[in-house]
Amino acid sequence: MTIKNTIPLIVFLTIFQSKLITAQTFVGLQQSNYGGIHQAGFNPANIANSRHRMYVNGLTAGLGFNNDYLKLNFPFPIANLLTGNIPQQYKNANNQLIFNDDWLKENVNDKPKNASIYLQTRGPGFMYRIGKSFAIGLQYKNTISFQVNDVAEPLARLARYGIDSSKGSVTFSGPNQFQVGSTFGDNAFTVNLNAYGEIGLTLAQTLIKNETFVLKVGATPKLLLGYGTGYIKNRGLMIKTPGTDTIVFGQTDVEYGYTDIRQFQNINAINFDVLNSKLNGKGFGYDIGASFEYNPKGTRRITNGKNAYLFKGGISLLDMGSIKYDQNLKNTRITNTGSEKYFVMTPGFASAWSAGEDRGLAYTDSVMRTLFTVDTSAKSVTSSLPSTINLQFDYNLFKMFYVGANLSQDLRGKGTIGVRRASYLMVIPRLETKLIEVALPMGLMNDYRNGRLGFYLRIGPVFVGSDNIIGQIKSNNIYGADIYFGISTGITTKKQKEKEETEK
């Protein structure tokens, strides 16, 4: 085993061993006036005078991935993959795609790299309006998430290519500028792997309602179920490579922890068998928000009488809270403030990892104890929810035509232990009726860095959507993609009667 192979293992520890690698916003669904309990995902106040008297979510699921380092650069449009119209020179004898590693292109711009993978399911849920001003809702969600934040570009290239030996002795030569004998130290980063569920009870109340103005408030307290977690928090790691199969550690401060990683191997059990899933942690979270609707008399001829507003807006704090993991947890912090420490890749190291994750981790821990100051006294770790502040706006252009906007600002930061949701700004033009709805979310995602174009389609109770897939299909480059789908239905309210047919 050479350094080219072992560096990614040392840096990311257990991450590439995870069976999760199988990246969430649901913008189109949660913006809709016919979203029922899903509207509480943007603002719990929204269901107070929902357009449904009762609404039931059968099952909703979404998954996606995203990164800003490697892109898939196919020699043909992505749409050809979906239609099966792949040029023959890129197929094998069984008409299967032959993947070429050269199709993975780097984004080299001297900026830190980030990546995420997620899967979220929303199980049975409902909302119900009690009278004209109060509504109650209940929703069960599960999220599995893997995130890498702020990996220095040289370290990302080191993980991809290994060490450039063009000026050294290791038998490898590639495009990476990290060479034998080089010292690398600017490499603080975080890695988070989480699987958790939440049971949320939404309560929403209309405070003011008159001919032109509606004001609503709402809250969703949540019981958090921690199935499993894993993290690396690297505050600083000075390394150099003097030769084959040797790493020299200088100043070091790295903390990592994990529960039983086998918990992540059965994704179906995590998502659909909560009663039998083993919990390693628990916690409490909440969403709170307020929203308003404005419907001046002079514009009622052009607005949708069912929704009865010219424009509406809202503000909310989402996913506040955390999970405390204190069962089956192994937590370690390694530091070195003294002389350099030499880590030699012996046959025993390779043998331990080839025997499985548990043996590999145990062997790595034992070696680390001989080199560093090791602190394993922490008996718990707190994993934060992806807290954000969310602003919503919606304007009724004419009857069934709307244009909305949604701004989500991350409150956690990239150094957080736990899940993080990248900031974004989206504009959502849409056509909305009871039976059919079409929306085209567009804007800036990934902390306002990347333009995205998605879609949302609902026909009756069935819906499908994405926050960025259209832009990906039309090109031959992929940095990420996502999709969500589900079935939900409800009983709508009667058309709101206007006291005045024309403006006096």
Q: Can you offer a commentary on this structure?
A:
- The protein is mostly beta strands.
- It has one domain.
- Helices cover 12% and strands 48% of the residues.
- The protein is built from eight helices and 25 strands.
- The strands form two sheets. A 14-stranded antiparallel β-barrel has the order 1-4-5-7-8-10-11-16-17-18-19-22-23-25. Strands 3-2-24 form a three-stranded antiparallel beta sheet, with no helix packed on it.
- A hairpin with a 4-residue loop joins strand 20 and strand 21.
- The longest helix has 15 residues.
- The protein is globular and about 80 Å long.
- It starts with a helix and ends in a 12-residue tail after the last strand.
- The N terminus and C terminus are likely disordered.
